[in-house]
């Protein structure tokens, strides 16, 4: 299956939304079983300000559907989301 990367940028001032929905987001990752790696993007102060997620899914439509069902998306956390096919070369 191809890999898809999601780069999500949080809305300014949305750290409380991220923290309030973090466990639901982590539970969603565990339940769906398609995340190869993931972690928060950090701002200049070292605070969580976005997400980088690598998904192992059959196609772009599945990647978009996964992202739309993420509790972070449902909570309105993201200002922008970019999903693109990604080719693993190293690691």
What report would you give on this structure?
- It is a single chain.
- This protein is of the alpha+beta class.
- The chain has a single domain (3-86), classed as Alpha-Beta Plaits (2-Layer Sandwich), CATH 3.30.70.
- Helices cover 35% and strands 37% of the residues.
- It has 3 helices and 4 strands, in the order E-H-E-E-H-H-E.
- The protein has helices at 15-32, 60-69, 71-74; strands at residues 3-10, 35-42, 48-56, 78-86.
- It has a 4-stranded antiparallel β-sheet, with helices on one face.
- Strand 2 (35-42) and strand 3 form a beta hairpin.
- The protein is globular.
- The two termini are 17 Å apart.
Tell me the layout of helices and strands.
Elements (H helix, E strand, L loop, with lengths): L2 E8 L4 H18 L2 E8 L5 E9 L3 H10 L1 H4 L3 E9 L5
Antiparallel strand pairs: 1-3, 1-4, 2-3
InterPro entries: Dimeric_a/b-barrel, Sec-metab_biosynth-assoc, YCII
Pfam families: YCII
Family: Belongs to the YciI family.
Strand count, sense and barrel status of the largest sheet are: 4 strands, antiparallel
H/E topology pattern: EHEEHHE
Helix fraction bin:
25-40%
Mean pLDDT over all positions: 96
Descriptors:
91 residues; 37% strand; single chain; Sec-metab_biosynth-assoc; four-stranded antiparallel β-sheet; Dimeric_a/b-barrel; YciI family protein; Alpha-Beta Plaits; 3 helices; YCII
